[in-house]
Write a structure and sequence with these properties.
The chain is mostly helical. It has one domain: Helix Hairpins (Orthogonal Bundle). Helices cover 89% and strands 0% of the residues. The protein is built from two helices and no strands. Helix 1 packs antiparallel against helix 2.
């Protein structure tokens, strides 16, 4: 019996490698977004701690103005960092969406080739079945003809 050989196997392997690469790129973008989200959480915690500290320093009584000014400057720096990170996160979110679409397209291309392979494999199996049936019919016909001539 002949073996099925998919002519586009090399192309399928290339498309699968491309899909896997796109999947890795998407995962990398997700990791970058996660890191930025963690940094935003850190900044938010620092801002909260800074506000609490500023409230504690601003209690009635003697006020350390220099410390209060430093606290407000630090909060402005944190707000600026958060704004920068928010902008980066927006860019990464757009990149994630772009990479997700690229992955979907690469996956679709792989699926098309896999469906084609499955269809060609089914057609090959059917053709092999027909060929084997013809061969069996021919053997049976020869055997019948041989036995038919031998018994007069």
């Amino acid at each position: 019996m002949a073996q099925f050989r998919y002519r586009l196997a090399t192309l399928l392997r290339l498309r699968e490698a491309t899909r896997d690469e796109k999947r890795a790129q998407l995962a990398e973008a997700h990791r970058a977004a996660h890191i930025l989200e963690e940094r935003i959480g850190e900044i938010d915690r620092e801002l909260s701690a800074s506000r609490e500290q500023a409230q504690a320093v601003a209690q009635p009584g003697s006020v350390n103005v220099d410390h209060l000014i430093q606290t407000h400057r630090y909060e402005r720096v944190l707000h600026a960092q958060r704004a920068t990170i928010d902008g980066q996160l927006k860019l990464i979110t757009a990149e994630i969406e772009k990479r997700r679409h690229a992955l979907v397209e690469a996956d679709r291309q792989v699926q098309v080739l896999e469906k084609l392979r499955a269809r060609q494999q089914a057609e090959f199996a059917q053709a092999e079945g027909v060929r084997e049936q013809k061969l069996m019919d021919e053997i049976a016909a020869r055997s019948h003809a041989y036995h038919g001539e031998a018994s007069p």
